[in-house]
């Protein structure tokens, strides 16, 4: 018969020696160090999120054609269409929307904001 081996008791093993740590920093230095680390992490982040502009599609830009007498006179005499458009749109957006929806070439766009608060575009 083979001799019986004694099992090693896990509790009798020696624990590895703890490494010596650097001496503790004074409170003021520790606080400054932690603030510096926090600033390094937050450096590229903004505290206020940027407000996103909802992108308007072509159908939202042009609300309706204007069919008043003066608008009809513009159409006949000056070859100019008149539309009510969204207040937040600019001339480039109006030009692209008219080009896409009506398949016409736009020479220029003039805009004005009416007293009732809506924007009128002469195309």
UniProtKB/TrEMBL annotation:
GO terms for cellular component: ribosomal subunit. Pfam families: Ribosomal_L23 (PF00276). PANTHER family: 60S RIBOSOMAL PROTEIN L23A. One of its GO terms (molecular function) is rRNA binding. It comes from the Eukaryota. InterPro entries: Nucleotide-bd_a/b_plait_sf, Ribosomal_uL23-like, Ribosomal_uL23/eL15/eS24_sf. Residues 1-30 are annotated as: Disordered. This is (raccoon dog) hypothetical protein. It comes from Nyctereutes procyonoides.
């Amino acid at each position: 018969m083979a001799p019986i081996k004694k099992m090693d008791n896990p509790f009798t093993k020696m624990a590895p020696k703890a490494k010596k740590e650097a001496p503790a920093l004074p409170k003021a230095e520790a606080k400054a160090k932690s603030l510096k680390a926090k600033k390094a992490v937050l450096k590229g982040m903004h505290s206020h999120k940027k407000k996103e502009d909802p992108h308007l599609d072509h159908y939202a830009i042009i609300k309706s054609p204007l069919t008043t007498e003066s608008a009809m006179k513009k159409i006949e005499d000056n070859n100019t269409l008149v539309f009510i458009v969204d207040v937040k749109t600019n001339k480039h957006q109006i030009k692209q929307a008219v080009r896409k929806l009506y398949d016409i070439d736009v020479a220029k766009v003039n805009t004005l904001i009416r007293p009732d608060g809506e924007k009128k575009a002469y195309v």
